[in-house]
Amino acid sequence: MINNESKANLERIEIELLLEGVYRYYGFDFRNYAFSFIKRRIFQLLQKESLTSVSALQEQILYNPNMMKKLFHAFSINVTEMFRDPSFFKTLRIKVIPLLKDQPIIRIWHIGCSTGEEVYSMAILLYEEGVLDQAQIYATDINGTVLEKAKLGAFPIESMQHYTKNYHLSGGKQAFSEYYTAKNNEVVFHSFLKKNIVFAQHNAALDHSINEFHIIICRNVLIYFNKQLQNEVQKLIYESLSPLGFLGLGKREEVRFTSYGNCYKVYDSAEKWYRKIQ
What we know:
Blueprint: H1 4-26, H2 35-49, H3 54-63, H4 65-75, H5 86-96, E1 106-111, H6 117-128, E2 135-141, H7 144-152, E3 154-156, H8 160-169, E4 180-183, E5 186-189, E6 197-201, E7 213-218, H9 227-240, E8 241-249, E9 264-268, E10 273-276
GO molecular function: S-adenosylmethionine-dependent methyltransferase activity
Pfam family, one: CheR_N
InterPro entries: Bact_Chemotaxis_MeTrfase (IPR050903), CheR_C (IPR022642), CheR_MeTrfase (IPR000780), CheR_N (IPR022641), SAM-dependent_MTases_sf (IPR029063)
């Protein structure tokens, strides 16, 4: 009889073989994602697809591209909302943007932008601070499907009450409804907000830098990676930030425990804003 420890070891072997197969056949590298996250998403997919083992899922994935799409979607992190953590955006508004207003071009990168809620939040904030016209916002995600949704700038109307509250808590200066038009069961944000936004597919764990930026937002992405992959992404971020550039992370993320911890000073500890110093 297989004991619990042996079962856990076999599950890990199966998962590692699955990830290796996905990498070698499809080119998607999830091998350095946090194991607990990967395991949880895989077993959720097993249950959903009525499969009995990880090996059975591997067979399906290697011979059925549609199953690979389902796995890819399961590994994509798409939890977001407009002005999520309003105090983070308030700090951006009050303490970061004023230091960049004299820049002829303010380049901003949202890594892992998902369906775009925080990107449009950024555009609204920049508009209210009078710098949207001089901003270039790059919004990237590994998942091309969510990027297509982000380009539309359309969100469920039932979310607007919550988003409006977030907006005002973040220091919003106008009626939030001025930025969108309601249509059926969704709202569509005005097109002027995305005139300086470039949406593009990009894998921060594998791809190279796309420019030099004054601000990089990478929130709640690193927590899904193991230590090795976190360091690789931090290398990309460091090389992509301009001198004295700003980095915004998620509540549970740090730079001090990575190889690049000494390259930043803490700009706002509560809201996880950092500034590049070397």
